[in-house]
Amino acid sequence: MFSAKCRISVQSHTRAFSSVVQSLRSPALYEPAFKLCTNTLRPPFSAHFSSVKIQLPEYKWIDGAENLEKYTKGGYHPVQIGDILHHRYEVVDKLGFGGWSTVWLSHDLLEKEYVAVKIGIADSLPHEVTTLRALATPTAVQACEPIPLVLDEFRIQGPNGSHPCCTTPVALCNLRECSFSRLFRLDVARTLAYELTLAVALVHSRGYVHGDIHLRNVLVRAPQSLNKLSIQQFRDEYGQPDLYPVERTDGHALPPCVPSTAVVPLYMGKTADEFTLADAHLLLSDFGVSFSPASQVRLGQDCHTPVDFRPPEARFEPNSPLSFSVDVWSLSTAIWDILGMRALFSSAFYSERQVMCQIVDTLGPMPASWLANWEDRTDFFDDQGVPAAGRYVWPKLAQAFEERVQKFRRDDDMGVFSPEETEAILEMMAQMLKFRPEERPTVEQVLESRWMVSWALPDYRRGQVKS
To answer: Model's pTM, two decimal places?
Structure first.
C-alpha cells in the first residue's frame, strides 16, 4: 500500500497546470464529470419562481473539489467526514464526484468493511442501480465479479431533496489515472486487456450495451486486505482527509444546503509501471448510459460516448439504433490505451471534425454513403480522396502502433511486442475498427481472436493463479 504521501493535492500547483493535474486526480473515478444523462426527473440546479429567477449563492473556487454551486435544491447532498449515512455507513473520505453524484469511502459499521457510497443528485432516478442489479448473477461474489455489485440501496433526505444512494465495492483508482505518463508491463497489459474484454462480454451476454467504455470507467479493485484496517490505521496509511473551508464570495453565512468544508478526493492507486499481475483486477463501472437493445432504442444521435472513443455510425447514422457493436469500437480504443502511451484517436487540441479526419487517415476511406454526407470532407481531402495540401496526415494503423505504442515502450524499457504478436494485435484491431457496425466481430469473437488466445489469455490465467 501507499503511504500518506500518495494523496495528490492540487493546491500546490498553479492554476495554469490545473487541467493536467485534474487528469491525475480521482473526480472521474466513479463517474465522468458533467456527462449528459437522461435519468433525472427534472433539470437540476435551476431555481425559478414563476417568471422570476432566483440568484443563487456563489462560492470561492477550491481546486480539486466539485462545483460548489451544485449544492442547491435538486443538486448534491452535503456530506461531512464522520457523517453516518443510513444509520450504518461512516464517511471516511471522498473517492470522487461527477456531474450527477458524489462518491464516498465509508466504513460499514455492520459488516466491518469499506464500501463506496454513491449519492446521486436529488430526485434522480436510479437507472444505473437498476442496470447493475439486472447484470448481477445469483452466484456473483464481490471478489471476482468484473461488474460492481450493488451491496445496498437506500435514499437520503436532505436540505436539497431526496437522494438515491447505493453502495458498491471500493476501487483504488481508474486505469486512466494510473497510466497517465506511465506504461504497464507487457504481461499486465495483456491481462488487463483480456479482463476488460471479458467484462464487456459478460455485459453483452446479459443483454446490455455499456455505451461508454474508456479507461476512466475501468476501475482497479481494492484488495481484500483493505478491510483489515481500522479507520485510524487507514488514516495512518493514507493520511487525513484533504479539507478546505467553503466560503461564499459575498462573505455571508453558508446556507444549510452546502457543506462547511470541501473534501478533495483521495487517490489510493499505483502508477502503471508498478502494477503486477496480482494488482490486475478490474471493475467495469459507470452504467449511467447503458441500455438493453431488446427493450430500449438508443439512436446514434443519442450516443454520448466521448468523441475519442465514439464509433462513427453515431455521426453518420444518427437515426439508426445503436447496438452491441458500439462497445466493440470503444473497447478497441481502450485496449490500445492499455497497451501504449498515446491514444489512437484524440480530441486533445482537436475538434470533433478533426477526430473524424484522424479516423479516415488511420483506417482508410469510409463507406461511400457516409462520405457523401460528410460536410467537412473537402476541408481535409480533395475529390480523389487525397489529403489536402499542408495538413498533417495521421499515420496508418500499423505505423501508429509503432509510433504510439512500441516507441514509448522501447524508450521506457517496458518491453515491446514481438513482430508476431504485433501482427496479431493489429489483425484484431482492424476487425474491431470496421466502419460498418455489422462488420465488426462480437465481443465473444474478440475473445477468440489469435492475440487474445495466444498472448492475453495465458497471462490472464497466470494472474488468476497468483491472486
So the answer is: 0.84
Look at the alpha carbons of 272, 451, 418, 463 in this order and tell me if their dihedral is positive or negative.
positive
User: Dmax of the chain from CA atoms?
Assistant: 69
For residues 390 and 371, what is the distance between their CA atoms, to the nearest angstrom? 22
* Residuewise pLDDT in 10s, the chain (467 residues): 334 434 443 333 333 333 333 333 333 444 433 333 333 333 344 444 345 556 788 999 999 999 999 999 999 999 999 999 999 999 999 999 988 899 999 999 999 999 999 999 998 877 888 899 888 865 545 556 799 999 999 999 999 999 999 999 999 999 998 988 899 999 999 999 999 999 999 999 999 999 999 999 999 999 999 999 999 999 999 999 999 999 999 999 999 999 999 999 999 989 999 999 999 999 999 898 999 999 989 998 999 888 899 999 999 999 999 999 999 999 999 999 999 999 999 888 788 889 999 999 999 999 999 988 888 888 898 878 889 888 899 999 999 999 999 999 999 999 999 999 999 999 999 999 999 999 999 999 999 999 999 999 999 999 887 66
Q: Is 356 helix (H, G, I), strand (E, B) or coil?
A: helix
Distance CA 403, CA 400 (A): 5
- Give the helix ranges, DSSP H, for 94-210: 127-135, 175-178, 186-205
Question: What is d(CA 177, CA 25) in angstroms, rounded to the nearest whole number?
Answer: 7
**Distance, CA of 237 to CA of 231 (rounded, Å):** 10
Provide the CB-side half-sphere exposure for 30 (13 A, CA). 31
5 is in an annotated binding site: no
Closest CA to 215 of 344, 321, 100: 344
Helix (H/G/I), strand (E/B), else coil: 40:
strand
Write the single-letter amino acid at 2.
F
The amino acid at 375: E
Instruction: Map out the domains of the chain with their CATH numbers.
Output: 4-174+223-270 (3.30.200.20), 297-466 (1.10.510.10)
